[in-house]
Amino acid sequence: MNAPATGQERQRHVRTAVLIAGRLAAGGGSHACEIINISIGGARLRLDSVPATLDAVTVQVDGYPDLTGYVVWRADREVGVEFDYESRETAQQMQLEAKPANLPSDRRRTIRVSVLWSGRVLFDADHDDLACMVLNVSTEGARLRLTAPVESVDGASVRLQIDRLGILEGRVAWARDDEMAIIFDEDPDRIAERLSAVLPRAQFNMLNAADEDAA
């Protein structure tokens, strides 16, 4: 395990607000956590309870190599982790994949919040269901990364099953390579209620304010 970066190096890294479910392994134990922002050099984590002893840690997220590093600060239910140099490539990949895509304005009327949530796209009989990672979400839709490319599905009715939210009805706005955008058919106010239960307050307030401006 390499030595962490200096404080000046940490300040040079731009952090991206995200919501990524993971686990923090430390001292022989493993604790559920959420990454609430991330950069190439480190991350801010939220836990239900912070272990009494934390030093060298490993952050584990499904679908990515482990991120190793050190806890550099702790406060209440949150900790700051500085990544080792060998984990920076993985951190950069996670940060890039969590950023909203640059979609045309007619395809996005509301701000989408960056997340990395596991889910599943449920098609009709013409296509097999596919596991996916939800990359960003709003009250009107979501962008997904699929486990395999899918063709000829634009406009198709689908159900998006998200572990944190349940099932959302919608239709495919576009699909290219292993990514897909879904427009929800459900009432945005009801979706907002469900999102408010799982998103950090700051992220939900940003999303909700954008919806009010659009109205």
Summarize the SSE layout with pairings.
Blueprint lengths: L6 H5 L4 E11 L2 E10 L3 E6 L8 E5 L6 E9 L2 E6 L4 H11 L14 E10 L7 E8 L3 E6 L10 E6 L3 E11 L2 E6 L3 H9 L4 H14 L1
Antiparallel strand pairs: 1-2, 1-4, 2-3, 3-6, 4-5, 5-6, 7-8, 7-10, 8-9, 9-12, 10-11, 11-12
**Major beta sheet summary:** 6 strands, antiparallel, barrel
Query: End-to-end span in angstroms?
Result: 51 Å
> Roughly what is the average pLDDT, rounded to an integer?
79
The tally of helices reads 4
Query: In percent, how much strand structure appears in the residues?
Result: 35-45%
Structural class: alpha+beta
Taking pLDDT < 50 over at least 5 consecutive residues as the criterion, the unreliable ranges are 1-11, 100-109
What is the share of helical residues? 10-25%
Order of helices and strands: HEEEEEEHEEEEEEHH
